[in-house]
Amino acid sequence: MDKSNFSNKNLPTNSDSSTRILDLTEFQQLSEIPVELEWYANLDNENTRRTYKIALRDFMQFTGIRKPEEFRQVTRAHIIAFRDELKRRDLSGSSIRNKLASISSLFEYLCDKNAVTHNPVKGTKRPPVESYEGKSPALGDHQARALLESPKDTTLKGKRDRAIIAVLLYHALRRGEVCKLKVKDVRQERRGVLHMKVSGKGGKTRYLPIHPVVSGLIHDYLEESGHGHDESGPLFRSLSNNRTMSKTVGITTDAIYKIVQFYSENMGFRIGVHSLRATAATNALENNADIAKVQEWLGHANISTTRIYDHRKTRPEDSPTFKVSY
């Protein structure tokens, strides 16, 4: 390639230097940021950032790493020693896998940036994948109906909470996805059918046909709240010091957790938000929904994750025991 292609004359020029936002010192400081910090700053999801931060802080304390650049001296021996230390702490297999996955993500980025030659986490034996069956128990149909009817829809809070529970039960959204919903996201028409635009993990977007029950409850909630005209505002809003809905403060993931906890405890049991996702997925599969479509519906990257909710092969009534006839 002709070296003249890289000369200054081929660079774009800034005709108006007064429009520059960064001064020379700031420009230099940004150019000197280690790629390790660049990787962390590039993480969009707040929950992912928190998880990775905890894992890396734990690893840094174990290895004595003090500066980002020291990650480049890590070998597979360090990773194995860290894994064995986590086992000695009696951490669950899934917790150990998550911590190693966090570290692996960093090294994959360093490899892409040519800061290291390989990812030392690769090839390190990890604890086997556990069966997650039963960890987020699915509700029975009668329990799901009772939970949906628990909020009293005569108040703004009741209408909001009922609409939230309906979205979780009928569309299997993650609580973070519920928090991201905007008013316009539940007004997406595709092929004449009302859809919900869901912003999922990894920046992936999916469109879900809205169940009539959910559509009706959201309509009642927006009519009561009066913020249906605010298309770009959050759909579900905080009610803390906001009874008139004058503030555009979206509900938090913690608030959604507390809503599900409160109404389930009133029914005599206690569940987390993920149980409603498990309930929706299990119910859809039990009613013969195609598992590949359920995978897309849930926003799973791998169908093996979706199979966690498929209990059809373990139903007692389907056992060959009951097919034997003499």
What does the model show?
This protein is mainly alpha-helical and 326 residues long. It folds into two domains: 26-130, Orthogonal Bundle (DNA polymerase, domain 1), CATH 1.10.150; 141-312, hpI Integrase, Chain A (Orthogonal Bundle), CATH 1.10.443. 46% of the residues lie in helices and 5% in strands. It contains 13 helices and three strands. The protein has helices at residues 24-31, 35-41, 46-63, 76-88, 93-112, 141-149, 156-171, 175-180, 212-225, 253-266, 273-286, 291-298, 303-306, and strands spanning 188-190, 193-199, 205-209. Strands 1-2-3 form a three-stranded antiparallel β-sheet. Strand 2 and strand 3 (205-209) form a beta hairpin.
In short:
The protein has 13 helices and three strands, in the order ααααααααβββααααα. It folds into two domains: 26-130, DNA polymerase, domain 1, CATH 1.10.150; 141-312, hpI Integrase, Chain A (Orthogonal Bundle).
